[in-house]
Amino acid sequence: MRLVVLGGGESGVGTAILGKKKGYDVFVSDFGKIKENYKEVLSINDIPWEDEKHTESLILNADVVMKSPGIPEKTPIVKRLLELNIPVISEIEFAAPFTTAKTIGITGSNGKTTTTLLIYHLLQQGGLNVGLAGNIGKSFAWQVAENNHDVYVLELSSFQLDGVLNYKPDIAIITNLSPDHLDRYNYDYNLYIASKFRITKNQSEDNYLILDNEDVEIKKWLQNNKIKAQIIPFSLLDETEKGVFLKENNINSKINNEEFTMPINELALEGKHNLKNAMAATAVAQLMKIRKQTIRESLSNFQGAEHRLEKTLKIQNVQYINDSKATNVNATFFALDSMQTPTVWIVGGVDKGNDYDELMSLVRQKVKGIVCLGVDNQKLFQTFSGVVDTMIETTSMSEAVKIAQKMAEKGDTVLLSPCCASFDLFENYEDRGKQFKQAVHNL
């Protein structure tokens, strides 16, 4: 069996290692440059590779192709493979059959990293032998090849789910839905939503689907589509017979005849969106039979995700917050909504078809100045130039932070919440967040 891996990054190299271990004839091809450390790993494992090109004669003879999530289906080589009916799958789809571990899959437009890390923390504290993978940490395939975990917590993007044919998580979570990555879905929101719901399409009656009971798009989809899994809803508004809800400032969870309660003021994470993330994680912990005391302790001592509303420093009584992971409008909505003081907002990057109008009332209410940080800021200027007093364009993080410092007064907040992808000026959102933190430390 010939396995061709497109993309020599974390998921690609992980898949190549697992494929080699399982006896496949493996070849890795990357149209960009493969990083030196990955080249080394491939060479040590005697896996042939190429970069800065795709040689058709070495690719089109594949029995199966694993496509890294960052490669769009519109790419010529992917189109050719699909024309030849060669299966093009994701890393998750490839690796899942090679493990007997339980998997918990988390998707959604926002909150998935925090929810994933929170679930991982809960299960780890509960003494389970658990791995963390998917869109985060070490590749799932790589861990399946080298580790022997009993449970995997997987953060799954829509791109990873696009390449799923048979994979089914034991427990699936959809945190919420809002327009994102529409540039990859022909600007059709319904295609993106369908992508997210692939997480449950192979689930059976003995699996669980945990979801936000207040999310308009989720509710709409459930009305028109059949689901086999047992649904466990979470909600801030409605008390449900089964599931997780809010009652008198307590999280209440009723699952499999077990009840769990915890005061929300004991939660480590702040904000309404994090309350929902905590509810989803509580449901998983209960399904996985974690002791109630452990769930309470874990929810109150969780550290949170880096680059997600991360308090960086306070300088001259101005709080600097790194929310670089906010790569879409909905994530930035949560960030602005949780601001308690006048805010200087650093925003911009690669626009993914964003509609900034949703932020208008929050910007009017909370934002005193905007610093644009991107190659093309035209759309931001069109939307907000009459709404805030000051709007300034910058092309580097250090410049953006210096200007924000000048705009901010005592008691204000400087918030990096870009609302956009980072690829115009940075390697990725982590690089953007690290540069922000560095720039703040240099003030």
UniProtKB/TrEMBL annotation:
What gene, per UniProt, encodes this protein? murD
Localization recorded for this chain is: Cytoplasm
Q: Which residues form the Mur ligase central domain?
A: 106-285
* One annotated GO molecular function: UDP-N-acetylmuramoylalanine-D-glutamate ligase activity
Q: What residue stretches are annotated with the Mur ligase C-terminal domain?
A: 307-419
* This protein's record includes keyword NADP: no
From the UniProt record, give the pathway where this protein acts. Cell wall biogenesis; peptidoglycan biosynthesis
Q: What name does UniProt use for this protein?
A: UDP-N-acetylmuramoylalanine--D-glutamate ligase
- The source's superkingdom equals Bacteria
Which keywords does this Swiss-Prot/TrEMBL entry list? ATP-binding, Cell cycle, Cell division, Cell shape, Cell wall biogenesis/degradation, Cytoplasm, Ligase, Nucleotide-binding, Peptidoglycan synthesis
Q: Which reactions is this enzyme annotated as catalysing?
A: UDP-N-acetyl-alpha-D-muramoyl-L-alanine + D-glutamate + ATP = UDP-N-acetyl-alpha-D-muramoyl-L-alanyl-D-glutamate + ADP + phosphate + H(+)
Q: What class of enzyme is it?
A: ligase
Q: Which residues bind ATP?
A: 108-114
Family affiliation = Belongs to the MurCDEF family.
What are its E.C. numbers? 6.3.2.9
Taxonomic lineage from the root:
Bacteria, Pseudomonadati, Bacteroidota, Flavobacteriia, Flavobacteriales
